[in-house]
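To close the chapter, one final illustration. This time we ask the reader to focus less on the individual chains and more on the assembly as a whole: which components sit near each other, and how the overall shape emerges from the parts.
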Amino acid sequence: MTDRILIGELRQHIGKTVSISGWVDVRRDQGKLVFFDVRDRTGYVQGVVLPGNEELMAIAKEVRSEFVVRMEGIINKRPEKNVQADRINGNIELEIKALTVLSSSDTIPFEIGSDTSGIDENARLRYRYIDLRSARMQKNIRMRSEFVQRCREFLFNKSFTEIETPLLTESTPEGSRDFVVPSRLNPGKFYALPQSPQQYKQLLMTAGFERYFQTARAIRDEDLRADRGFEHTQIDIEMSFVERDDVMAMVEHMITETVEAMGFTIKDKPFPRISYKESMEKYGADKFDLRTEEEKEKGILAYAWVIDFPFFEKTEEEKWTFTHNPFSMPIPEHVEKLMTGEDIGDILTTQYDLICNGYESGGGSIRAHRPEILEATYKVMGYSSEETEASIGHMLQAFKYGTPPHGGIALGVERNLMNLTGETYLREVQAFPMTRGGQTAVMNAPKPLAEKQLKELGISIDKKNEK
RNA sequence: GCGGUCGUAGCUUAGCUGGUUAAAGCGCCGCCCUGUCACGGCGGAGAUCGAGGGUUCAAGUCCCUUCGACCGCGCCA
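The assembled structure is written out below.
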């Protein structure tokens, strides 16, 4: 048996005997001649079974779409009249001498030869492994991989250390609703899945790593939208001994280098900066799309920074709450206001949001690295010192042991990929997304647990509340 | 939690003011075809019209209930 040659490399093997493996895209049975389009991860090629070998022809007649096959034969240049100039490998074909079915396939539930975005989404998700074979989904998922890889390489080159933080962590009432996990060893107690690695990455600054990153999963139990799922991935970054402009410059450099290497054009460099106030006045929102219609057509990326957000806003109960992140530092000239609790509504935070094509593609800030600043923030929000201690006492404690000034950012991988691919649904850039109702792709979650599992966890279900 | 749109063969859809055998394209199955390339030709199978109830001589179509999907709002440090 000869070694497998990738279909994308067949052009270098004209006149040679080769073996290819892949999926049958279509079969065109002409009676005495049978044609196949065969696909692997690198491309397509036409194979043909010519008359003469009855055994081979019999196998060819049995093969159907999506069968996984190995084909051995000779790569021929096509005669001039059969060349398909506009198709990949349109000038060559494989004259099949041997055909092995490695795996057969039932008729697939929907067609994948063209864009599957119009297909019933439940069907696509139930058979996600088939949907993902379509050219568009292959492109999206591979582009995602490339984007993350390039960001990673950039960060490694800038001497960042990749560090994983725990998935089983502490529930916090602030911010979004947590997904919780019952503890078997501590019946009646629960872990929470991280909404963000925020606190751990700050602790890594205390720990002296200075430059951290992680492709981190962030998990939030909030209702879904077209551009929002229960879980998403972020390129999570934190740096020590930096100010706002240092982080913004580093991120801008990374994004520019990454997307330009991927062949995209950025509208404005450096990225325009606009204050929250100006953004609200000009666009009526804290995110906006700077592209013209023509630039949208061309797939140009329009990045911008929004800065100078208010630190606090009033809740319905007329109490102050943070707008973005309680761990942020106010802008330097407003630190005094925070410490004294004056003009709270006027305090601006060091928060910076990275906007691209109307989406928020990332956000971060310089953090409060001294315990008294963080304490002041919680005081503004109406926390007693006992409540503050209960909520973030561990952070205050850590900050007592020499924490450098630091700041960082989290870039949403899906949001960025939506901009790169032009997709308007987050699910189109995730391999196995959920439905809006929280049903998982392919697998059947959530589902009830067996009695035994519940008992081990010390959980009893009130049957009245079961659907 | 609230509002909107939708649910008809495997997939995509048509089905007007209710009218008797629910239609088409793609896909699938069978036969034919020596240069096709989304091959083509002929034939065929395939739908309790999301579910339940009601109005009516008659319901895919009208009404009620319910389930599900999507989109938006709330929510999302």
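Chain A has a mean pLDDT of 94. Chain A has two domains: 7-103, 144-429. With these observations in hand, you are ready for the problems at the end of the chapter.
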